């Protein structure tokens, strides 16, 4: 199913790691690489808050 880009609130809370534009945009926003972003999502899930916490502590 295609990502509904009109659902912006959900996009700010969850990281859709399978979407190239989401990986790129979230990596830029969080000041990290796409590889580190994947690692963080794998470790803590797709919650943007949890990923931020993970990246800050690693």
What percent strand?
under 5%
Can you tell me the residue ranges where pLDDT is under 50 for at least 5 consecutive residues? none
Output the structural class: mainly alpha
> Cα distance, first to last residue?
33 Å
Number of helical segments with 4 or more residues: 4
Number of strands: 0
Helix content: 55-70%
> Which radius of gyration do the C-alpha atoms yield?
11 Å
Count of discrete domains: 1
Note the run of SSEs as H and E: HHHH
* Apparent shape: globular
The major β-sheet equals: none
Mean pLDDT score: 87
What this model shows, in words?
This protein is an all-alpha fold and 58 residues long. The protein has one domain. It has four helices and no strands. Helix 2 (20-30) crosses helix 3 and helix 3 crosses helix 4. The longest helix is centred in the middle third of the chain and has 11 residues, at 20-30. It is globular and about 25 Å long.
Which descriptors would you attach to this protein?
single chain; about 60 residues; mainly alpha; about 65% helix; globular
Characterize this entry briefly:
With 58 residues, this protein is mainly α. It contains four helices and no strands.
List the helices and strands and how they pair.
Layout: H1 8-13, H2 20-30, H3 34-44, H4 48-57
């Amino acid at each position: 199913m295609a990502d509904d880009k009109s659902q912006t609130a959900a996009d700010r809370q969850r990281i859709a790691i399978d979407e190239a534009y989401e990986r790129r945009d979230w990596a830029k926003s969080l000041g990290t690489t796409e590889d580190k972003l994947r690692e963080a999502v794998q470790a803590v899930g797709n919650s943007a808050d949890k990923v931020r916490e993970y990246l800050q502590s690693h």
